[in-house]
Each structure stands twice: as structure tokens, then as C-alpha cells.
Specification:
Distance between the termini: 28 Å
Strand order of the largest sheet: 7-4-1-8
Radius of gyration: 17 Å
CATH class: Alpha Beta
Largest sheet: 4 strands, parallel
Length: 164
């Protein structure tokens, strides 16, 4: 099952960081928030990710393009530019990065991912919030109720994304 990561917002609540990088790329413990969220899903066996990029999306794309070098020790030949990764095998993830537009709202981002979702059941999460959610139990709950969507929220509500 695919997991969609919404990564297009301006990150106005973290303006001191997000004037230079998108909010999902703000580091916690030496790695971007989005990577922490991916690790949560990976823990539950979900490793096929689609990132809906927007604001400063090119930085997210560059990070994943260069992931093996960023996350590992390596040797580079200055003579021919060849590189040898020395340690830390990367996670077994598939990460699709899609430019969904800078000003596109959440529903529009999902609509623009239609070609990659193929009308399959999928999960959607924000790229900037790490939580302790039992993804397996959440999916079981969703399937047992036969509804179109299931939403997980936190207390207290935030300024943006408030559920009523």
C-alpha cells in the first residue's frame, strides 16, 4: 500500500527555518522530519512512498536523489568522480517525488497524484509530524468500518488543520 506525504506547505510556523528549506526537511536528531515519519510507516511494513512536493520541493527531491551519499560514509575519486559507499545500507524504500505545485491546496495535491495511486487504497500523512500511531490498528479500524476515509488527529488542535 502506498503512503502519500503532503510536503507542499509554506511552513509559516517555523519561519526561522523555512525561509531556506521546506518544513519536512527541518532536522530533528540529524535527519529531516520527513525521514522520521517514513521510518514510522516503514516500521509497520509500508515502504512505498509518494511525496507531494510544493514549496521548495526541489530541496526534498535533491535530498532523496542524494540519499545514499548523505546517509553514508563514502569515498570519492577526484580523478574520475566515481563514488564508493562504505557503510550504512539504505532502507528498502521506494520514494516517488511529484511536483504538485507551490500554491496547490491539499485536495488538489491528492488529485494531481491520481496517476501514481491507480485507484488503490492509500494512506495520507503530513510530512512534518511525528507521532506514535499504531498504523496496523488504524488500518484495521478503517477496513472494519467500510468508510471512504479514516482520520487520526491529536489534542490539542493546532492552528492549521483543525478538525471539527
Amino acid at each position: 500500500m502506498k503512503v502519500v506525504f503532503l510536503a507542499g506547505g509554506l511552513g509559516s510556523r517555523l519561519a526561522e527555518e523555512t525561509t531556506r528549506i521546506p518544513k519536512p526537511m527541518v532536522e530533528i536528531g540529524g535527519q529531516p522530519i520527513i525521514q522520521h515519519v517514513m521510518q514510522v510507516y516503514s516500521h509497520w511494513g509500508y515502504t512505498d512512498f509518494i511525496v507531494a512536493c510544493g514549496y521548495k520541493g526541489e530541496l526534498i527531491k535533491r535530498y532523496f536523489k542524494d540519499f545514499n551519499l548523505i546517509a553514508s560514509d563514502f569515498t570519492v575519486s577526484l580523478r574520475d568522480g566515481s563514488r564508493t559507499v562504505l557503510s550504512k545500507s539504505p532502507p528498502d524504500w521506494n520514494v516517488t517525488l511529484v511536483d504538485t505545485g507551490v500554491a496547490t491546496m491539499t485536495g488538489g495535491r491528492l488529485r494531481r497524484l491520481g496517476d501514481w495511486l491507480n485507484e488503490e487504497t492509500f494512506m495520507v500523512t503530513y510530512s512534518d509530524g511525528v507521532g506514535n500511531v499504531d498504523i496496523g490498528a488504524l488500518l484495521d479500524f478503517h477496513r472494519s468500518h467500510g468508510k471512504l476515509a479514516t482520520v487520526t488527529a491529536v489534542q490539542p488542535p493546532a492552528r492549521f488543520g483543525n478538525l471539527e
